[in-house]
């Protein structure tokens, strides 16, 4: 009897601990929608963001313009943290902020559940954003679930001092000329550089470079109906092989994984000479490479323009103050405000008018050798030709691909063929 | 018992009608006291079981229900699929890989942990100066949040810029590929777990050691046993029940290891080749990464079954050891 009771107690304790999963159905909440009256009652609006949106001063400004509104800012450290928070609270059906910032990479997953988000389409904002920016947040039925904030047009950041040492041209115009063309040209320049320098790699990571390349493919992993084509798509396989050829066989990669400790630390040593960089990356490089001189940015991107990342503001339908929230989101994402956010934290605006604003075009960056970053990034934004189709499984497939590249480039646990096999298995399991 | 027996004895027939009422009343109050005796103990322990039913049993059964459906984290319940989720998960190489990793990390952490904890406890049990200071000192790592421990150790275990590898290179050895080599990553994660839990277990052992009667040691000393002999022939056998407790809690905790492994890199999936993905991390990847709650729940249930089996095996083995200990 005694021992049986103990076994039962043990199993019970094990059960308690083993299963922390509680599933919740999602329920729609009653709400007044976004059509209600604004500006009359006192409201407190919560705004959830992550990383740096550059909104701190704008919130104060809005509160002064609208005395009935108090803004409560909830800032997550990383976009992954924000995504976990958003998903969990969507599933729970409560607890979200009145405005939630979301990132373009997980936008397609959310487009699957349009009734969780207020329809923000409005004649007043028609034509405010670059076409691809707005199209990405619009459902097939024409519902706009988010207002675009920033975008990630990419240039090439490089170390002018290391270029000079290797005997390559180092001012930003000549570098732009040298790197203009296809990805093969970029890799060929890399071979020349690596041959002439002592142990310095051409780029930081195979995964990051692949990211730049795949963002130029219209339908990389899914066709327009959302059917998965990733493993049969010869374009994907070609890019995979090309980037690994350059990284491993030709030794152009510094064999790092983005965001890992080693990657962060590598900015302090002369580990690599170039890096694909969207606007928001400038701040990251400046932070990691503090005290290192020689960084510059060239107005060029191999294989045509490319966009990497960027965010939106959404108004979840579970919120109680949707009309006020929509008004605030609209104000924040207006060109004038986004230019101020760019000045504050370097988040590059996705609004057409902002791209032409003098405040933006006149912007220079002291860390990058006083480069006219505003003008360069504006050129890069207009150079973007392809809007990649990102379906609901894009995030997961791209993740699996990044791991496939890391296995060969960083971990060296696999060769390109065996790693591709594992990628095929992983995609099959989604 | 005599009181309750009397209720059942039928009263003599001739006395029945005049005293009918009082008998009834007596019977009722006695019934109440009978209930009191029989039910109260259950009532007193019921809060635990009610709480367990709400926080333990309900999620357990609900998870089983979810695992039989296709179920999206946001979209909610889909159609009933029977055991399809289990079939799918059991056919995944990642699942079996996670099982292997979990056991490897569990063994690498639990075994050294128990051994070192006993050794530390033995030292603390000796006559030290500033005893309380040392005893509290071993508990300090336990107070640090596991994620903070992860951040600190990540810095130490970084492949290229980490302190450990720089030290290895400094003395002319090859650097260890902490984030690429499967076993090396398990050792690194086990180090974090051990850092956190060894001191805690040492205190439990210390408490048990202090409960060992001192005259046993005196007798051993008179018999001519040295310190080492006393430790192995007196201390360790007397600690058996405590060892059983520590081993069982370490098993349950070890099989559910999550925090340390998850913060071992930024992506938190257990490495590009899933070198250190544990079962709980696999649940996380399925449920929150892929938002497939059905499959995540299936893995959760499989993990539950594994823990029950291991806990029972553990129990049977340690009970046998304990019995032998008793006989000696």
At a glance:
Chain A is α/β, with parallel strands linked by helices. Chain A has 19 helices and eight strands. Chain A is 45% helix and 13% strand.
Describe the structure.
Chain B: Its main location: membrane. Chain B: Belongs to the binding-protein-dependent transport system permease family. Chain B: It is found in: Cell membrane. Chain B: Keywords: Cell membrane, Membrane, Transmembrane, Transmembrane helix, Transport. The complex is a heterodimer of chains A (430) and B (328). With 430 residues, chain A is of the alpha/beta class. Chain A folds into 2 domains: 43-151 and 310-361, D-Maltodextrin-Binding Protein, domain 2 (3-Layer(aba) Sandwich), CATH 3.40.190; 153-308 and 380-428, D-Maltodextrin-Binding Protein, domain 2, CATH 3.40.190.10. Chain A has 19 helices and 8 strands. In chain A, helix 2 (56-65) links the parallel strand 1 (43-50) and strand 2 (69-76). The longest helix of chain A is centred in the C-terminal third of the chain and has 18 residues, at 394-411. The two termini of chain A are 47 Å apart. Residues 1-31 of chain A have low confidence and may be disordered. Chain B is mainly alpha-helical and 328 residues long. Chain B folds into 2 domains: 2-67, no CATH class; 84-327, Orthogonal Bundle (MetI-like fold). Chain B has 15 helices and 2 strands. Chain B has helices spanning 2-8, 20-67, 84-90, 93-125, 131-137, 140-143, 146-157, 163-170, 182-210, 214-222, 227-238, 240-255, 259-262, 279-289, 293-327; strands at 69-72, 76-80. In chain B, strands 1-2 form a two-stranded antiparallel sheet. Chain B is flat, with a radius of gyration of 28 Å. Chain B starts with a helix and ends with a helix. The chains are: A alpha/beta (430), B mainly alpha (328). At the A-B interface, helix 1, helix 3, helix 11, helix 18 and helix 19 of A face helix 2, helix 12, helix 14 and helix 15 of B.
């Amino acid at each position: 009897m005694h021992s049986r009771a103990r076994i039962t107690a043990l199993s019970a304790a094990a059960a308690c601990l083993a299963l922390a999963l509680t599933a919740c159905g999602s329920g729609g909440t009653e709400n007044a929608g976004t059509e209600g009256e604004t500006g009359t009652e006192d409201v407190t609006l919560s705004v959830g963001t992550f990383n740096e949106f550059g909104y701190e001063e704008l919130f104060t400004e809005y509160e002064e313009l609208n005395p009935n509104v108090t803004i409560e800012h909830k800032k997550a450290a990383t976009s992954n943290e924000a995504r976990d928070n958003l998903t969990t609270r969507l599933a729970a059906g409560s607890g979200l902020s009145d405005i939630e910032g979301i990132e373009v990479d997980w936008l397609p997953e959310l487009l699957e559940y349009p009734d969780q988000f207020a329809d923000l389409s409005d004649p007043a904002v028609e034509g405010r954003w670059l076409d691809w920016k707005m199209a990405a947040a619009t459902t097939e039925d024409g519902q706009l679930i988010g207002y675009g904030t920033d975008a990630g047009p990419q240039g090439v950041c490089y170390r002018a001092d290391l270029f000079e040492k290797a005997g390559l041209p180092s001012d930003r115009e000549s570098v732009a000329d040298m790197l203009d063309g296809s990805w093969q040209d970029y890799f060929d320049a890399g071979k020349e550089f690596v041959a002439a320098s002592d142990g310095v790699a051409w780029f930081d990571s195979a995964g990051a470079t692949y990211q730049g390349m795949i963002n130029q493919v219209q339908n990389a992993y899914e066709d327009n109906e959302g059917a998965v084509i990733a493993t049969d798509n010869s374009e994907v396989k070609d890019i995979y092989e090309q980037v690994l050829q350059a990284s491993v066989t030709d030794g152009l990669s510094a064999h790092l994984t983005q965001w890992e400790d080693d990657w962060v630390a590598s900015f302090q040593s002369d580990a690599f000479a170039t890096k694909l960089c969207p606007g928001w990356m400038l701040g990251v490089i400046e932070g990691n490479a503090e005290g290192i001189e020689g960084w510059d940015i060239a107005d060029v991107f191999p294989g045509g323009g490319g966009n990497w990342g960027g965010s939106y503001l959404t108004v979840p339908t579970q919120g109680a103050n949707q009309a006020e929230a929509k008004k605030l989101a609209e104000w924040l994402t207006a060109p004038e405000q986004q230019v101020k956010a760019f000045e504050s934290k370097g988040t590059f605006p996705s609004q057409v008018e902002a791209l032409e604003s003098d405040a933006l075009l006149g912007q220079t960056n002291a860390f990058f050798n006083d480069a006219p970053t505003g003008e360069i990034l504006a050129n890069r934004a207009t150079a973007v030709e392809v809007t990649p189709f990102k379906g609901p499984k894009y995030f997961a497939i791209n993740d699996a691909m990044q791991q496939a590249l890391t296995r060969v480039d960083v971990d060296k646990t696999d060769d390109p063929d065996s790693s591709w096999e594992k990628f095929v298995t992983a995609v099959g399991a989604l | 018992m005599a009181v309750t027996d009397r209720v059942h004895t039928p009263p003599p027939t001739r006395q029945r009608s005049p005293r009918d009422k009082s008998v009834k009343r007596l019977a009722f109050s006695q019934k109440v006291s009978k209930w009191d005796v029989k039910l109260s103990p259950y009532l007193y322990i019921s809060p635990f079981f009610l709480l367990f039913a709400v926080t333990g049993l309900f999620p357990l059964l609900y998870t089983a229900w979810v695992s039989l459906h296709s179920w999206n984290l946001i979209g909610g319940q889909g159609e009933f699929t029977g055991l399809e989720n289990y079939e799918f998960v059991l056919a995944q190489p990642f699942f079996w890989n996670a099982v292997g990793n979990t056991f490897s990390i569990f063994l690498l952490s639990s075994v050294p942990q128990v051994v070192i904890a006993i050794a530390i406890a033995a030292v603390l049990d000796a006559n030290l100066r500033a005893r309380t200071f040392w005893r509290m000192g071993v508990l300090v790592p336990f107070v640090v949040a596991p994620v903070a421990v992860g951040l600190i150790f990540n810095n130490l275990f970084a492949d290229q810029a980490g302190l450990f590898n720089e030290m290895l290179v400094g003395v002319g050895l090859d650097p260890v590929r902490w984030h690429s080599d499967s076993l090396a990553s398990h050792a690194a994660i086990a180090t974090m777990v051990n850092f956190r839990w060894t001191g805690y277990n040492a205190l439990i052992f210390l408490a048990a050691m202090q409960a060992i009667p001192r005259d046993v040691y005196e007798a051993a000393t008179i018999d001519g046993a040295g310190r080492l002999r006393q430790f192995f022939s007196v201390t360790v056998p007397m600690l058996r029940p405590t060892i059983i407790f520590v081993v069982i809690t370490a098993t349950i905790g070890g099989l559910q290891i999550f925090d340390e492994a998850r913060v071992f890199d930024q992506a938190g999936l257990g490495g590009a080749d899933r070198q250190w993905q544990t079962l709980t991390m696999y649940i996380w990847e399925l449920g929150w990464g892929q938002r497939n709650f059905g499959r995540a729940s299936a893995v959760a249930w499989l993990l539950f079954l594994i823990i029950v089996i291991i806990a029972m095996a553990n129990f049977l083995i340690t009970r046998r050891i304990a019995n032998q200990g008793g006989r000696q």
